[in-house]
Amino acid sequence: MTVETPTRFSPLSDRRDDFAQLPAGLTVRELPFLTQLTLRTEPGGPAAASVEACLGITLPGPVRAESSGDVEALWMGPDEWLLVAPEGGRHDLLTRLRSAIGDEDFATVTDVSAQRTTLDLSGHLVRTVLTQGCAIDLDPRATPAGSCPTTLLGQAPVTLVVREDGASAVRLLVRASFASYVADWLLDACTEYRGGTG
């Protein structure tokens, strides 16, 4: 018996042409099918130590991200992390983590890959554009590379991962239901920079 794999559609697959019209100082591309797993465990506890050993990563403290290989751990709360990895390795990563956690009373890992899409932003206009609708101070002294605050962009909740100092490269993790709104917001925020040198 053959089991058909369901067709997956990214929330912003129809916006690529729109993103191509952005000014030269801002590049936006969607990374739609990243593996995203929510880890809940006691910080510093046995399950956390097992996960760290399994991944070769230190689970980060408040509003920070750490990476090892192709897995990135984002702090989401006092006992919660979002583990982000490339598409395709979800089953293997989930299996490894559940094996590492074992039977610990307070430790769970949940696949939440379908909840969000990711927008990868780069260019010298990133910080300028985002500050129009984000209350987070994106000055590198306040949010250096490795910061991952959860905030609002316009009216949409996002997790903003700063990948380079000066916020010239960030990723926005946004729930699929807000993805179109965020795309529209970014396009609108760039209106004054179109047609110029950016």
How does this structure look, described?
It holds the Pfam family SoxG. This is Sarcosine oxidase subunit gamma. InterPro entries: SoxG, TrmE/GcvT-like. By secondary structure, the protein is α+β, with helices and mostly antiparallel strands. α2 packs antiparallel against α3. It is globular. The protein folds into 2 domains: 13-32 and 115-193, Gyrase A, domain 2; 35-111, Alpha-Beta Plaits, CATH 3.30.70.1520. The protein has helices spanning 16-20, 46-55, 90-101, 126-130, 176-189; strands spanning 27-31, 35-41, 65-68, 71-77, 80-85, 107-111, 116-122, 150-153, 156-162, 169-175. The chain contains 5 helices and 10 strands, in the order αββαβββαββαβββα. The relative contact order is 0.20. The strands form 2 sheets. It has a 5-stranded antiparallel sheet. It has a 5-stranded antiparallel sheet with strand order 3-4-5-2-6, covered by helices on one side. It starts with 15 loop residues before the first helix and ends in a 9-residue tail after the last helix.
Give a quick rundown of the structure:
By secondary structure, this protein is α+β, with helices and mostly antiparallel strands. It is 23% helix and 30% strand. The chain has 2 domains: 13-32 and 115-193, 2-Layer Sandwich (Gyrase A, domain 2); 35-111, Alpha-Beta Plaits (2-Layer Sandwich), CATH 3.30.70.
